[in-house]
TrEMBL record:
This is ATP-binding cassette domain-containing protein. GO terms for cellular component: plasma membrane. SUPFAM superfamilies: ABC transporter transmembrane region, P-loop containing nucleoside triphosphate hydrolases. Residues 21-304 form the ABC transmembrane type-1 domain. SMART domains: AAA.
Length: 585
C-alpha cells in the first residue's frame, strides 16, 4: 500500500525541509489540541466540587482561547507546507512526463494512444499529488495523532476505559485492508477507461469534417455514449467500494462511543472517574473520530495514488527506441551523405520497406526521390531523422555513422517538411518563428516570399497575426504547406528535406518555390520526394523507388533516355499539363 511513498522518496528527500517543518508542526498542533479538553474537564471538576472562582474561570477561558489561537497559526503553516508540496510534486512530475514524451520517437506513439497519455498526465498525476499532501496528513493523523490521543486517554484519564473503547479499532483496520485492494484494482481499470474516452473525443474533434461529410453525427454520438457509459460503470464500481469506508468507520466509532459512555458512567458511579474526566474522555474520543476516518482515507488515497503512479511510471520508465551513444562522435558540419547497403523494416511491418539502398550525396547537391505510392520515398528520407532503430547497412554523414551522432545535433542540421503539415494553434508569425526563435518580421517575410506565400498573406484578415486554428484548420491545404515551408526556410538548415511538401500547390506556384529554393539554397543539401516530376527536374541526382529498391537513377536527362518508369511518368504528366493549359486558354 505504501509503495507510492517509496517511489516518491526522491521528492521527499529533495523537499525534506518542507516536510520536516510541516509534519513536526502537524504533530505539535495535534498535541496542542489535547489541552482544551483537559482544561475544560478540570474546570468542570472544580465547578462540581464548588472550588471554582472567577479568577480560575477566567484563567481557564484565556488558556483555552490562547491554545486555539496557537493551533490556528500552527495549522496554517503545516497546511501551507504539506499541500504546497502536493502542488509542487504534481508540477515536477508533469514537467518530467512532458519532457519524457518529447524524447520519445514515433514507435512509442504508435504503441500509445494520445487520449491515454493525456489521462496519465492529468487525472493520474493529480491522484499521485494527493498522496504527497492529503496522504501525508492522513498518514500522520492515523498513526502519530491517534497514538498521542490514545496515550493521553490512557495516562491522563483511564487505561481501562481506553482499552474498552478501542475494541472496534482492529475491525476498522481489517475492513480497510480488504477495501483497499479492491479499490486499487478497480481504480486502475477506471483510469484506463478514462483514457479510452479521451482518445475518442480527440478523434471526433479532429475528424469532425469527415464525420459531418458522411452524416455520421448520430453514430458518433452513440459511440461516445457507449464509451461514457463504460467510464461511468467502471467509476461506479470504484464508488461502490469507496462507499463502504465511511459507514464502516461510523459504525465502529459509534460502538466506541457507546462502550466509552456506558463504561465511563459505570466508573463514575464507582468513584474511579470524575465527571470532568469523563467529559474530557468523551472529547478525546470525539477527537479520535478523525484519525479513524483518516485510516480509511489513507488507504483510499494510497491505493489510488499507487495505481496512478504505476500508470505514470509505465511511461516514464519506457526507454526511447533510439538513444544517443554514451560517447557520441563530434561532427561540426554535415557534408557528404552516404547510404551503404541500407535495408530497413518498420517494427510493425512483415517485409523490408527499404532494400539494399546505396546513395552518395555531396554537399550542396539536390536529390530527387520519386516512385509509386508506397514505394518507400518517405521511409528513405526519414532515415536521416533517425527516428527508428536502423536496419542493416550504414548511413554516414561526413563519414560518421548516423547512430554515433547525437539526435539534437543531427536535428539541428535538418529542416523537415512532412507530407502532413502540423501547425500550432497560434498565429502565422508564431508558427513560422518556430523555425527561428524571435525572428524579425523582415526575416519572416523573406521566408514567406521564398515559400510563395506572400500573396496569400495579404488575403488573411490579420496578416501575420492571423490565428491559424487548431492544426491550421483556418488555412487551405496549400496555405498550410507554404507556412510549413516558410518555417523550414527561415531556419536555413544545412539539410532540407521536403517530403511531398508541394502536393497541394498548383504547378506555377510549385515552379516559383523550386526556383526560389535553387537560388536561396545554393551550396546546401536538399532532398525532395514528390509525385510531380517537374519539382525535381533540376536535381543533381534522381532515384526511382519500387518496393523499397532503387530501380532507376541518374539525372533528369539520363532517366528520360533510359525509357523506364520515369520516362513513362514524365510523358503522362506532360500530356496532362498540356491538356490543363489548353482548358485554361
Amino acid at each position: 500500500m505504501f509503495s507510492v511513498l517509496r517511489n516518491l522518496g526522491w521528492f521527499f528527500r529533495r523537499e525534506k525541509r518542507r516536510y520536516t517543518v510541516g509534519l513536526v508542526l502537524l504533530i505539535v498542533a495535534g498535541v496542542a489540541e489535547l489541552a482544551p479538553p483537559r482544561l475544560l474537564g478540570n474546570a468542570i471538576d472544580e465547578i462540581v466540587n464548588g472550588s471554582i472562582s472567577w479568577t480560575s474561570l477566567t484563567r481557564y477561558i484565556l488558556m483555552i482561547l490562547g491554545m486555539l489561537v496557537f493551533i490556528y497559526f500552527i495549522t496554517y503553516i503545516w497546511m501551507r507546507e504539506l499541500f504546497g508540496g502536493s502542488n509542487l510534486v504534481e508540477r515536477l512530475l508533469r514537467s518530467r512526463f512532458m519532457a519524457h514524451l518529447l524524447r520519445m520517437t514515433p514507435p512509442f506513439f504508435e504503441r500509445n494512444r494520445t487520449g491515454d497519455l493525456m489521462a496519465r498526465a492529468t487525472n493520474d498525476l493529480r491522484s499521485v499529488a494527493q498522496t504527497a499532501g492529503f496522504g501525508m496528513l492522513t498518514l500522520t493523523d492515523s498513526t502519530i495523532f491517534l497514538a498521542v490521543i490514545f496515550i493521553a486517554m490512557s495516562t491522563i484519564i483511564s487505561l481501562k476505559l481506553t482499552l474498552a473503547a478501542i475494541i472496534p479499532l482492529p475491525f476498522i483496520a481489517l475492513a480497510m485492508s480488504i477495501y483497499g485492494k479492491v479499490i486499487h484494482q478497480r481504480y486502475t481499470v477506471a483510469q484506463d477507461a478514462f483514457g479510452d474516452m479521451n482518445d475518442q473525443v480527440l478523434e471526433s474533434v479532429a475528424g469532425i469534417r469527415v464525420i459531418r461529410a458522411y452524416v455520421q453525427e448520430r453514430n458518433d454520438e452513440k459511440r461516445f455514449e457507449s464509451i461514457t457509459n463504460d467510464v461511468y460503470e467502471k467509476n461506479l464500481a470504484v464508488a461502490r467500494v469507496d462507499a463502504f469506508f465511511e459507514p464502516t468507520i461510523r459504525l465502529c466509532v459509534g460502538i466506541s462511543y457507546a462502550i466509552g459512555l456506558a463504561y465511563g458512567i459505570y466508573l463514575v458511579f464507582h468513584n474511579e472517574l470524575t465527571l470532568g474526566e469523563l467529559v474530557s474522555f468523551n472529547m478525546y474520543l470525539g477527537m479520535m473520530i478523525w484519525p479513524m476516518f483518516a485510516i480509511g482515507e489513507l488507504i483510499n488515497v494510497m491505493q489510488r495514488g499507487g495505481a496512478s503512479l504505476d500508470r505514470v511510471n509505465e511511461i516514464l520508465y519506457t526507454k526511447p527506441d533510439v538513444e544517443d551513444k554514451s560517447t557520441p562522435a563530434e561532427v561540426s558540419q554535415p557534408e557528404r551523405i552516404e547510404f551503404k547497403d541500407v535495408t530497413f523494416r518498420y517494427p510493425t511491418s512483415s517485409v523490408d520497406n527499404l532494400n539494399q539502398i546505396n546513395l552518395n550525396l555531396h554537399p550542396g547537391e539536390t536529390l530527387g526521390v520519386v516512385g509509386r505510392t508506397g514505394s518507400g520515398k518517405s521511409t528513405l528520407l526519414k532515415q536521416l531523422l533517425h527516428e527508428y532503430p536502423l536496419g542493416t547497412g550504414e548511413i554516414l554523414i561526413s563519414g560518421v555513422p548516423l547512430e554515433n551522432i547525437p539526435a539534437e545535433k543531427l536535428h539541428s542540421w535538418i529542416g523537415y517538411v512532412p507530407q502532413e503539415q502540423i501547425l500550432f494553434s497560434k498565429t502565422v508569425r508564431q508558427n513560422i518563428q518556430f523555425g527561428l526563435k524571435d525572428a524579425s518580421d523582415e526575416t519572416i517575410l523573406e521566408a514567406i516570399h521564398t515559400a510563395a506565400f506572400d500573396q496569400d498573406l495579404q488575403t488573411l484578415s490579420d496578416g501575420l497575426d492571423t490565428l491559424v486554428g487548431e492544426k491550421g484548420v483556418a488555412l487551405s491545404g496549400g496555405q498550410k504547406q507554404r507556412v510549413s515551408l516558410s518555417r523550414a526556410f527561415i531556419a536555413d538548415p544545412e539539410i532540407l528535406i521536403l517530403d511531398d511538401a508541394l502536393s497541394a500547390v498548383d504547378a506555377r506556384t510549385e515552379a516559383r518555390i523550386i526556383e526560389n529554393i535553387r537560388s536561396k539554397r545554393s551550396g546546401k543539401t536538399t532532398l525532395i520526394s514528390t509525385h510531380r516530376l517537374s519539382a525535381i527536374e533540376h536535381a543533381d541526382h534522381i532515384i526511382v523507388l519500387e518496393k523499397g529498391q532503387i530501380i532507376e537513377q541518374g539525372t533528369h536527362e539520363e532517366l528520360l533516355s533510359q525509357g523506364g518508369w520515369y520516362r513513362e511518368q514524365y510523358d503522362r504528366q506532360q500530356v496532362e499539363s498540356n491538356l490543363s493549359d489548353g482548358e485554361v486558354s
